[in-house]
Amino acid sequence: MPELKGRVIAVTGAGSGIGRALALGLARRGASLVMADKDAAGLAETARLLGNYPHSHTAFDVTDSAALKGWIDGAVAEFGGLDGIINNAGLSVVAPFADCPKADFDRVMAVNFDAVVEGCRLALPHVKARAATLGSGWIVNISSVFGMMGYPTQSAYNASKFAVRGLTEALHIELAVTDPDVCVIRVHPGGVGTNVARNSKVIAHLPGTPADIDSAAEFEKAVRTTPEQAAEIILTGMEKRRHRVLVGPDARFIDWMVRLFPESYMKRIGLFLGARGN
After folding, report:
1. Are 261 and 48 in contact (CB under 8 A)?
2. Where in the chain are the domains?
3. Angle 270-208-153 (CA atoms, 0-180°, nearest 5)?
4. What DSSP state is assigned to residue 241?
5. Catalytic one among 53, 151, 157, 265?
6. If we measure between CA atoms, which residue out of 13, 17, 10 comes closest to residue 120?
7. pTM
8. How far, in Å, are 60, 74, 156, 224 from residue 14 at the CA level?
9. SS3 165
10. Predicted confidence pLDDT, tens digits, the chain (278 residues)
11. Cβ–Cβ under 8 Å, residues 69 and 120
12. Residue 15 contacts residue 47 (beta carbons within 8 Å)
């Protein structure tokens, strides 16, 4: 089982939630952290919490390809290489597809999928080089339970997370042939207590939805897992070289429902799910 001690791991979306918990968990395991987030204040707080653990942090928008490249190149220059990347940054909007403006849909795709593609593309040569020397490396992409099931008012998020799933599965199969020391992992969190729902842009709900509904509050009622618990599950998956990681009891339940009832899962999941996954 490969150790994370002494490894250099890049994490996007490290300013809060799962990303922050991953950074702290990796540091406790002895890894060096290379962190990014658009939220400069949140990222600085994560850096403060890390204290003297080896790390660097850079605030930028992951959709800025030049900044993303500079961040990864800078990590390699500073730490002497890159052993893995966790593409974690993400956002959501709430709207039926017909009511979702193109700019909002495209923004979700840009952050949740395009930036993951670019993160993989830029990190992969460095990760492959280190894996060839040290025997292991990681590409970890955070999908969602919404990368396994459709959900109303989440068409943009669904599209992005299904795309992350497909990309990661294909990359896993390819690298199993060309670079088997690189472990490619897709992660499907269920309801995790992060800021994703609270920060979501609410555009519209389905007809018949109460006008005063608080989407974030409804999500928080359905939360089953803390960011710290989620991070521990993901890091254990990295250590055990699992290709697919389900985070939380709701994720496991949804996984089974989608497998067993591919045409009617939504009717069966509705009451259990209660609100949006992560």
Report:
1. no
2. 8-273
3. 55
4. T
5. 157
6. 10
7. 0.92
8. 11, 17, 22, 21
9. helix
10. 779 999 999 999 999 999 999 999 999 999 999 999 999 999 999 999 999 999 999 999 999 999 999 999 999 999 999 999 999 999 999 999 999 999 999 999 999 999 999 999 999 999 999 999 999 999 999 999 999 999 999 999 999 999 999 999 999 999 999 999 999 999 999 988 666 666 778 888 888 777 666 565 555 666 679 999 999 999 999 999 999 999 999 999 999 999 999 998 988 887 555 443 33
11. no
12. no
CATH number for 8-273 (one of 1.10.10.10, 3.40.50.720, 3.90.870.10, 3.30.2000.10): it is 3.40.50.720
DSSP three-state, residue 201:
strand
Lookup: tokens for 14: 């490290």
> What DSSP state is assigned to residue 48?
H
In the residue annotation, 157 being an active-site residue is answered as: yes
The dihedrals phi and psi of 156, each to the nearest 5 degrees, come to -65, -45
Contact 165, 185 (CB under 8 A): no
